[in-house]
Description:
Rossmann fold; pyruvate-formate lyase- activating enzyme; 34% helix; CATH 2.40.50.140; seven-stranded mixed sheet; alpha/beta
Amino acid sequence: MTKRLTYHLLTLGCAKNDVDSSSMAQLLDEAGYHSTEKTNQADVLIVNTCGFIGPAREESLRYLRELAARKRKHQVLIAAGCLSQLWGPRLADAVPGLDGVIGTRRWMDIVEFIERVRASRKGAPHPSPLYHLPTEADTVGEDERGAQRVAVQGASAYLKISDGCRRPCAFCTIPIIKGTLKSRPPELVLAEAQRLAEQGVRELILIAQDLTDYGSDLGLRDGLAQLVTDIIRVAPSLDWLRLMYAYPGAVSDRLIEVMATNDKVVKYLDIPLQHAHPATLRRMRRPSNMEWVYRTFEKMRTAMPELAIRTTFIVGFPGETDAEFEALLRFVEEMQFDRVGVFTYSFEAQTASGHMPHQVPREVAEARRNALMELQQRISLRKNQAFIGKTLTALIEGTDASGNISIGRTYRDAPEVDGLVLLRGCIPIGEMLPVRVTGAMEYDLIAEPLGAPAIAA
């Protein structure tokens, strides 16, 4: 009887990487491989790397080197994902013992690539690493080998609707890693949304490098608004439909209307602004019309008074002056965002910003990040305290280590990046129930269940 090969797949980085890993795992399972959580039992070790910024690259290298150091004679180690595409053969130089490098553009070739790598090692005392790094990007929706582009996590699921990006942001490596925008055909997205709803998924999260650009390469106008409308039609059993990664300047009036008039669409939008001073934004090659920001946010909040807005900012971008940073602080104080992520600028040699003068010292950037985060923590606490005594719906995701506290999220919280709601008792995973907020912290809420009773721990 032929031994069934096993694989261990480690995913680093964002939810979009989770989807790619889930798709690769599906293809491996269909090819007869068996997944294992134990690295010492796997024939194939795969790390789906992140290469977006310096700290993410260091994390990817650390895990790869640890696995390479412990790798047994019969095992092969393969690096996949963003750092693989970004560094190529350089990655094998940085990780002695690496057997194969496969990039982001052809993840769907993972089974064939593993077979090539394993064959190259037979009878070779010191085999050279193999590489699979084609640069073509015209594979999304056309050559996915039937793999679903989803990642299910409990009662929630991420659904990737496009890959790549055509925006010219000066700091970003995504176009280098992923290529230009490639939207998946609507019929594929709708079929997967319907299938997930039939499987009992309660929250569907649409993800892409830029959701609001969806369909522009297919000749669609307001493609995201139409896609959201169609998903609600074909998957009526979904409870929540959440939108992540909108681009400033691309949130249309129709999208606002669709979000406002459909109860299934979570009143939440993630729209990374990156800065608030026009001069900084121009250097970033980002939309710099702040009048649009004020006008559009006013439209959204008028149409959806309960709307939760998440954004991100980069501090310490080359040339950022004290005055530009102070303008950012004033803007955040004025706008009162629900959720904010703040990142210090990461030097990326391959990007346009890597060649800009007036690089900001690291200690200055860190101090600015701390100042902005302290401001946002005060804003977030005030916003959370305003919910005390109110009733919200919570989606339960698990319990703490003791089993006595259930952990969930409200509509204001995307998985992994936002806050939580904490409830006494053990409530089943996937339960959605009304809760009354009884306490608030900077990021999280404390509440008591009003619906299904908690199970005694």
